[in-house]
């Protein structure tokens, strides 16, 4: 492995080297050692057995095809994602010369069938009744993702191919999968097609300069991540703006499948998609809106977030005015017609509340009906996208268990998809785990940050130093924002339009982002703080940051959460959030959990890196020890 490699696979070797590992019975153990060393986690015994079996089969095929000299990149991590490809083979194209790469997805399946005749969704016995993505769609998605993000592939012709290889399967066991469309990015082979698989590999690869071409792939530049909101309007029209992978595509296909089932008969079902920050929930939502719109299917998008909804309305409405009406709030369905929509996409459903009623609600709408029931009633296929660890306000209560309980209590079918992949924070699942352990949201306790080349973590000695670092990123045309816990008074703008520098730390001070919906003094309205270039220079809070992402993230941890001895202490008196004032509605225990969730949201907004600073000296020293 070369020290300059950007996306080092867990194992890099030649076809011959892979065969040597296989004969020694050391493929699985070698990958397990690399995973423990590089990713600080150990694979399951089943995963090790799978590596031994599948990679040994591939090694034998490479030998038989005369390709012992090609480069094998096993468990290659996609850029800006925690998803890993089974194998990327690198060599030279035998006809035209130049680099050539083949993405290979290895399956040990012997049997598989289609999920209710849906061509892209597959039932495989080891997964029970949960549908998974067709392996050809899976490998094609990986190829499209690489073409989108790797500079070495940009503009290149015929440089990448893909194959799903079911090396244990015969046609009898997987005959239903044969009909799925194939192309160069997605070919389908079973054990009965071994000769065809060898011919396919020989048509794409020769060992000439294989190591040079592997180096180029691993050292490739990575294009900036597609900013969700910057392409929202185009996404509503073309959906191809986003490539959906694995569980994301399963969720997308499953919703479309349930819509068609509902249209064919009197059927109603609920789809729940759960995942952490940056797992692609809102990308799925926008992708669905685009596709449903093209099919003429009645759909709407709803959230409990004013910032997120208004930003989507602004971007979509600017380019395609009629699309802005698609974006609504959870509390706008109190008097909706039952099943008046085919699909209602409830994004950020962790922000569901007990009821939609508030002090402005008309008497005839004060029915006591739960908000979750209103949303379920509004569409034949309500879709809930949520992250249970992003509940940051009292009264927010959207959980997988609660939604499923309500749906099943009404006799409805429920489909639940978990998005395990990470696209935010540079695709660093290691960073997300580090944050959750740091804040005590998962077991294990705070750990030292051991580094991840996909994501940078640093402390800043002061707010001014942090701001200087972020300003340097802006000057380099990289998006950056600074956010803080709600620990300072939040003033309205002065009469002359200037903003009050409420966030004061030592001799440094800056204003909060605006409260309202109008631009004042050159600052963008609150809903656009995270997405408008003019947002830099104001400090954001969780309500304006949640649901958004920026390349570089500065987080000021205020005096409402401090480290004392060996634990976090939530200091309620230091918090200025009016939603937390009522001790009868928000107990001290609830406040403790909510404030940790607030900082989890703030700490997971960055795509490339984060800078941390605590206003409390003891907490700052603690963070510096962990980060190093």
UniProtKB/TrEMBL annotation:
Q: Which Pfam families does its entry note?
A: SLFN-g3_helicase
Q: Which residues form the AAA+ ATPase domain?
A: 267-418
Q: What is this protein called?
A: AAA+ ATPase domain-containing protein
Gene3D superfamilies from the entry? Answer: P-loop containing nucleotide triphosphate hydrolases (3.40.50.300)
């Amino acid at each position: 492995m070369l020290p300059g490699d950007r996306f080092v696979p867990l194992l890099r070797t030649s076809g011959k080297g892979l065969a040597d590992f296989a004969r020694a019975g050391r493929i699985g153990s070698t990958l397990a050692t690399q995973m423990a060393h590089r990713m600080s986690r150990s694979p399951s015994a089943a995963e090790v057995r799978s590596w031994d079996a599948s990679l040994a089969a591939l090694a034998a095929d490479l030998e038989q095809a005369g390709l012992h000299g090609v480069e094998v990149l096993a468990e290659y991590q996609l850029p800006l994602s925690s998803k890993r490809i089974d194998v990327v083979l690198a060599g030279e194209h035998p006809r035209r010369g130049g680099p050539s790469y083949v993405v290979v997805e290895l399956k040990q399946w012997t049997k598989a069938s289609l999920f209710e005749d849906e061509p892209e969704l597959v039932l495989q016995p080891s997964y029970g009744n949960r549908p998974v993505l067709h392996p050809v769609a899976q490998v094609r998605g990986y190829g499209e993702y690489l073409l989108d993000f790797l500079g070495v592939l940009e503009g290149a012709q015929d440089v990448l191919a893909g194959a799903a290889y079911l090396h244990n399967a015969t046609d009898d066991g997987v005959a239903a999968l044969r009909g799925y469309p194939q192309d160069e990015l997605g070919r389908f082979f079973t054990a009965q097609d071994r000769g065809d698989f060898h011919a396919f590999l020989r048509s794409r690869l020769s060992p000439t300069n294989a190591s040079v071409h592997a180096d180029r792939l691993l050292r490739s530049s990575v294009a900036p991540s597609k900013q969700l909101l910057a392409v929202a309007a185009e996404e509503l029209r073309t959906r191809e703006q986003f490539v959906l992978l694995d569980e994301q595509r399963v969720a997308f296909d499953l919703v479309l499948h349930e819509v068609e089932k509902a249209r064919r008969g009197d059927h109603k079902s609920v789809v729940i998609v759960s995942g952490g920050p940056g797992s692609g929930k809102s990308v799925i939502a926008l992708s669905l809106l685009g596709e449903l719109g093209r099919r003429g299917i009645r759909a709407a998008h709803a959230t409990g977030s004013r910032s997120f909804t208004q930003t989507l309305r602004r971007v979509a409405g600017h380019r395609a005015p009629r699309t802005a009406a698609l974006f609504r709030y959870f509390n706008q369905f109190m008097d909706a017609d039952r099943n008046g929509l085919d699909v209602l996409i409830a994004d950020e459903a962790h922000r569901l509340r007990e009821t939609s009623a508030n002090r402005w609600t008309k008497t005839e709408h004060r029915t006591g009906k739960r908000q979750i029931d209103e949303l379920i009633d509004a569409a034949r296929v309500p879709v809930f996208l949520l992250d249970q660890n992003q509940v940051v306000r009292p009264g927010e209560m959207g959980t997988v268990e609660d939604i499923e309980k309500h749906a099943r209590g009404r006799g409805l079918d429920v489909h639940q998809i978990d998005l395990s992949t990470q696209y935010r924070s540079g695709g660093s699942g290691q960073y997300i785990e580090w944050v959750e352990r740091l804040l005590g949201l998962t077991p294990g306790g705070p750990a030292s940050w051991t580094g991840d080349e996909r994501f940078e973590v640093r402390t800043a000695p002061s707010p001014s130093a942090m701001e200087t670092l972020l300003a340097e990123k802006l000057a380099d045309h990289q998006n950056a924002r600074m956010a803080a816990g709600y620990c300072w008074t939040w003033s309205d703008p002065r009469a002359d339009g200037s903003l009050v520098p409420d966030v004061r730390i030592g001799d440094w001070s800056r204003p909060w982002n605006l409260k309202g919906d109008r631009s004042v003094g050159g600052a963008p309205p609150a809903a656009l703080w995270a997405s408008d270039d003019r947002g830099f220079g104001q400090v954001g809070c969780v309500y304006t940051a949640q649901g958004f992402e920026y390349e570089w993230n500065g987080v000021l941890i205020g005096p409402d959460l401090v480290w004392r001895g060996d634990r976090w202490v939530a200091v309620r008196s230091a918090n200025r959030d009016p939603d937390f004032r009522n001790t009868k509605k928000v107990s001290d225990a609830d406040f403790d959990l909510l404030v940790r969730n607030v900082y989890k949201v703030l700490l997971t907004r960055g795509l490339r890196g984060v800078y941390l600073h605590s206003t409390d000296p003891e907490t700052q020293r603690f963070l510096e020890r962990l980060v190093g």
